[in-house]
Amino acid sequence: MEGTSTAADLALRALQPGGICAPVGYYLPPGTKVPLMHMYANDATLKIGIPHVRPVLPDLLDFVARTGFAAEEVTTLLADWEDAPEAYRAHITKLVLHRAPLGA
Questions:
Q1: Phi/psi at 99 (nearest 5 deg)?
Q2: How big is the CA angle at 68 (ends 62 and 72), to the nearest 5 degrees?
Q3: What pLDDT, in 10s, does the model give residues 11-53?
Q4: Which of 3, 28, 69, 104 ranks highest by number of CB atoms within 10 Å?
Q5: How far apart are CA 32 and CA 44, in angstroms?
Q6: For the range 13-20, what are the long-range contacts, defined as Cβ-Cβ under 8 Å and sequence gap of 24 or more?
Q7: How far is Cα 90 from Cα 54, in angstroms, rounded to an integer?
Q8: What pLDDT does residue 8 have?
């Protein structure tokens, strides 16, 4: 998996045969090269799309509970749901929106 959306060429070349590169975004610099021959020869997959995190949430929550991982240290801005339009305009690195549970 590639987590920066800026080093697709390097990430694809670093895959093991049959590997999958799934960038977390689609904002690549102009002129980004995709090493198609290398991908073909190594049966590599480049997956671009919205991530579906639900299947890994139980493992992630278990990790946070076991390790005491301080998620707030990687959060640039924590905003209320109602303030989402303004928060998105801030163009920060990691935005976390929160709201009361639905139906509460």
A1: -155, 165
A2: 105
A3: 888 899 999 988 777 776 777 778 899 999 999 998 888 778 8
A4: 28
A5: 17
A6: 13/38, 15/42, 15/44, 16/42, 17/42, 17/43, 17/44, 18/42, 18/43, 18/44, 19/44, 19/45, 20/44, 20/45, 20/46, 20/47
A7: 27
A8: 65
Instruction: Provide φ and ψ at 22, rounded to 5°.
Output: -125, 85
Nearest Cα to 10, choosing from 44, 52, 50? 44
Contact 18, 43 (CB under 8 A): yes
> What's this model's pTM, rounded to 2 decimal places?
0.49
What gap in Å lies between CA 98 and CA 94, rounded to an integer? 13
Cα angle for residues 54, 55, 59 (degrees, 5° grid)? 100
Q: Residue 41 burial by CB count (10 A; 0-12/13-18/19+): exposed, middle or buried?
A: exposed
The token pair at 56 is 């890994």
